[in-house]
Amino acid sequence: MGLIEVAQNFTAIVCGSDVLIYNNRNSKNQKLDPVSDNENHENSKVKILNQDSIDEKHKNSKTQINDPFRKYESFNVSENQKAKEGNSNGGSSNKTNLYSIVSVKASRDGQYLAIAFEEKSAVVWCTKTWTRLCIHRLVKRPMAIAITSDSSTLLVADKSGDVYSFPLKGSQPKDKQDRLSEQEKNEGKGEENQEENNEGEREKYQEKNNGEREKDREENNGEREKDQEENNKRGREKDQEENNKGGREKDQEENNKGEKEKEVTPVTPKPILGHLSMLLDMAITEDDKYIITCDRDEKIRVSHYPNSYNIVSFCLGHKEFVTQVELLPQNNNLLLSCSGDGTLILWDYLQGECLAELDTREYTPCDLLHMYEEDRKQNEKSESFKKFLPDFPGVKHFAVRSINATQHIVAVVLDRVPAILLFQIDVPNMTPIVVKELEDQPGEVAWLQSGELIHVHEFSRDIITVSELQNNDLKPVAEHPLVSLGRRCAGLFNGVYDGPDFDVLYKQQYDNVADYMKKKQKRLAVEKAAQDGIIVPFKKGRWS
Prior knowledge:
Distance between the termini: 61 Å
Number of strands: 29
Strand order of the largest sheet: 1-2-3-4-5
Largest sheet: 5 strands, antiparallel
Structural class: alpha+beta
Radius of gyration: 32 Å
Shape: elongated
Number of helices: 7
C-alpha cells in the first residue's frame, strides 16, 4: 500500500489528501521550533504536498501555479478549517472534496516521488525543486504503484486487476527536472561568460576607439562628446527598461502556457498484465527483470518485465487475499508476503516455493482481540446483511529492516489489533521477538534509515510515534523531530486512509443448502398431511 515512504533525503507521510514531506538531512536529535512568520521558508525542513494546492495570490484567478506545494510554517490548522467551511459554502476550491491518497512511492535514487490519488490520478513530483512534473489520468481506481530502477517508468495497479505503465516524467521528451538542472548549471556559466565577454568587448572597443577618439578630440568640440555620452546613456537605459519589461513578460507568458499545455497533455497508458481479480499490491525487482503482483484470489504472480505475458511462477499458499508483497532489501531472491488469513510466508519466488510460514494467531494475546471481537458480534446481530469474518484478524501491513543478507526484522500490524508484532527472519526461519501493545491500532509502520520504527496513530496523543528496538523491546523516542511534527500537524490527520476495508475483501459465504433443506422438509410435511386426510390434496401442475 505504501502510506509512509522513507527515502535517502526525505520521509513522506500520507495524511488524508495531503503528504507531509520531512527533510532527513541533519535531522538527528534536532527539534522543530515553533511556527514563526519571520522564519525563512526556503530553508524549511517540512513541506505539504497535495493535488489542488493554489497560491494565495491566485485564489480569485483561474490560473494555477506550476509549483503547487505549501510550506508547513505557513500552514495554520484553524485557518485551514475556516477555509474548508468557506469553500463548502460555495467557494471556488472545495478542500473537503479532495480525495484520499492511496499510495506514495519514491524512486530508488530519491529524485522523484509518485502519489496515487483515489480519484483515478497519479502525480509525479521532482524532489530536488519540489515541482510537479506531470499528472497521469487513470482508467480505474489505483491500488498500488511502483517505479522502475532507472526512474523512467511508473507502474500502476488498479482495482480491476490490470497493470499499466506510464512514462514517469510525462509526455515531454525531457523532464522539467533535467531542464531545471541545466538552467542552474547554465546560470553560473552564463554569468562567467558574460563577465568574460564584457571584459573582452570593452578591451576591443577601447583599442579601436582610441585612435578615433584622438581624431575626434582634435576635430570635434567637447560639447559633442558630452551630447553623445548623454544620448547613449539615455538611449541605453530606455532600451534596457523596455526590453526587460516587454521581453520578460512575453517569455513568462509563453513559458507558463507551454508548461501548462505539456502538463495537461494526456499520455496513453500501456497495458502490462492483467488479473481476473482485484490487485492489492505490486513489487518490481532491482534489476527490473521481474514484476510481482498479488490479488484478492490468494495468488501471487511472478512475471517477466516488460514482457509480462511470460509468467515465471505462481506462489500459492495463502488461504485469503494477499495484502502485501515485498522483496527483502539485501536479498532480492526472497519475497515476503502477508494475507487476510493472518499468515506471513517467505518465498523463493522464482521457483514458487514456500521456505517458511508463520501464523500470527499463535503469538497474539487474546486480550488484544477485543476490537475485532466487537465487530464480529455486531456483524452477527445484523439482520439485513451479514459479512463473513474469520475467527482471527488478517495481517494488514508489515515493514522489513535488513541487518544483513540472512537476518531481517519484520514489524507486523494486524487488522483492528492495537499492537505491533516484531519477528526476526534468519533465513529460512522466522521467530517472534516481542508483541508491543499500543493505545490504538497503528495505521502504517515503516523503518527509518537510522533504525527507528515510525508508526502513525489517528486517535492517539502522539499522531506520529517513533520507537527504537532495545533489548528485544520497542521503546518510544520522545524527542524525535517526527514526534513533534505529528503534534503540530494533528489537524491534518483527520480521516486518514489506512488501506482497503478487510470486511469487503473477504469472500462472502452463502448457505444455500440450508434453505433447500427447509423447503424440502416443508414440502414433505404437506404431502404427508394430504395422505393422512388432514388437508385437501392439491394439484402440483398440468403434468402431475
